[in-house]
Design a protein that fits this description.
The protein has 34 helices and 17 strands. It is α/β, with parallel strands linked by helices.
Length: about 725
Amino acid sequence: MQTASMPLTDQLKKFFGFNQFKGEQEQVIKSILKGEDTFVIMPTGGGKSMCYQLPALISEGTAIVVSPLIALMKNQVDAIRGFSKGNHVAHFMNSSLNKTDLAIVKEDLVAGKTKLLYVAPETLTKQVNIDFFKSIKISFFAIDEAHCISEWGHDFRPEYRRLREIIEAIDRVPIIALTATATPKVQQDIQKNLGMSYANVFKASFNRPNLYYEVNPKKEANSQIVKYINQHKGKSGIVYCLSRKKVEEVAETLQVNGIKALPYHAGLDAGTRARHQDMFLMEESDVIVATIAFGMGIDKPDVRFVIHHDIPKSLEGYYQETGRAGRDGGEGRCIAFYSYKDIEKLEKFLQGKPVAEQEIGRQLIFETVSYAETAVCRRKQLLHYFGEDYDGDNCGNCDNCINPRVEFDAQDQVSLALRTILELKENFKANYISNFLAGHITSEIKSLRNDEHRLFGKGKDLEEIKWNSIIRQCIINNYIIKEIENYGVLKVSAKGKEFISDPHQVMMVEPKKYDANASIVTSNSKGGAAADEELYAILKELRKEVAQNEDLPPYVIFSEVSLQDMATQYPITMVEMCNITGVGQGKAEKFGATFLEKIKEYVEENDIDRPNDMIVKSVVNKSGLKVFIIQSLDRKFTLEDIAVAKNKKVDDVLEEIEHIVTSGTRVNLDHILNELLDEEYQEEIMDYFKETEEDSMDDALAEFDEAYSEEELRMMRIKFLSIMGN
């Protein structure tokens, strides 16, 4: 082949337009071109794909690339085709192809036109495909995401364990295995399983200096995420969640807060997933909210933040997912939210699995907890996990280095915790022990009469949250162990018993707390910031003026609660107005502009220091009920029908409709009201609501001397608000 004699740098320029290789790419490519087994451990963004793409293009035959994610193969193939004249240069073979497409792929392979063929491991294991691959010239096998082979890896796939025997059955050609994450244990597992113990190993540094690492307590995570994204408008980011349900919830929360966000998880159909992925790549959407199904093979260089709504179940998973930020060397912020309750959920998932698998899973989770709770440089701890030393104790680009956490000698607290566990016969979990020490009488403590125990409340000078932190750090330091079989129960280890006999200084860190200035007042929080009385009075007067101009009662414009919220949050944009309690988009657009203008003027004149973040509009758990009610009313269902369908009382349904209407959404109750009240009676009630200044149902009942039922009047008020206010 003519191109084969060209220097590699010329080949690189010819096919990909780059003038020079990155890191050890050239040495890796030379290794595979020599026909030697090659193992590449290179962080996300380090250029792994080039290590097999270029040798495939300049070698005789077809390189077979084993990739675990069918959804991303098309993107990888499209990327290669973008550098070539014909589509035949790269294909994928998986279950998504129809017979016609498969025939075209095989025709190109037999003709020797295809240089790269992406296959799923399941495709490779079918005997019909094994027989076909034996008939074509194969240059080498590339095993992408090779950590999937290892049970100690973060994304173990059993089908990957068969790859070696299948490759041997097809043709003993060179193998290049590639992964972005591999601890020494995983590296050993990969090489052993693929039979490439003598492979040339190329391990790039795992240090990504441009990435900033931060772990925060999981307190109002959705609010914190909205706050962060709104502070970085227009930047691309990924939010990872552990469950499909959480992905949908977070995506919806971002959307209602004016953020261009889309969900991505395996529960969506392939077409939707592909469309959402393309919209993210084409920057039609700023944020993807996803399970770990998203990201492998995504080559978007300008992802500026990766947020973990839920802490991952392994540090390898965390490292690989954060590695999708800042691949161009620019800014990349990696923020994780950590709650020990999430860790307990992950541990619970291990129940029922074989003990060996539980032990592996628990060890991986343990490493994640150690990282989340550490007070040392996060970069140093991450690199140490991957077998790499980091010189220096302060990287200057993680939360622990920028804001060092307070350490204290916990000798007395550790002794008390260990003695308490033993005195309580090693029968309880961490939360029970923490509450017991802090002197909190829970129902479980009360029922066992342990509130009468001599050690109960011995640690009441510390809060339960701090005792929980001390216990977790005791687990990390091997003073306490958790039973595998008896899920979560604490036992004192041999090391812990030695400590009781011979106590000594043991340094621990204070639980991480939010800066008071960073807290977010939510619309449903109690005891939040007080309203600005002067602004509230101004807004109340303005509401009266608008009401007079519109010939409507003031309460129709905005409720008292909404005005108080405006006087607390000082909204100055339409998006912020939509986040005010009781204000939906329709009401904001109809009446909001005048109020925003007045608030902005007040803020500027009085040099008001507005809250850093507006209230984050939450997706109420009853949002599905609201949609159901609106759709049911459109279909002319009765209130009784709706109540029965949702196992609710009619009064509850009416209350929900009232919330819907006061937030600015119009509903139609005519099909119900026309059955109950003649037109003239409806007009009489409408006139009353139009003339009254007070939004009081008691006043309405008194006015009509109970000639109409409360239910009839409430429905008429809904009709009035729907027509006049929305």
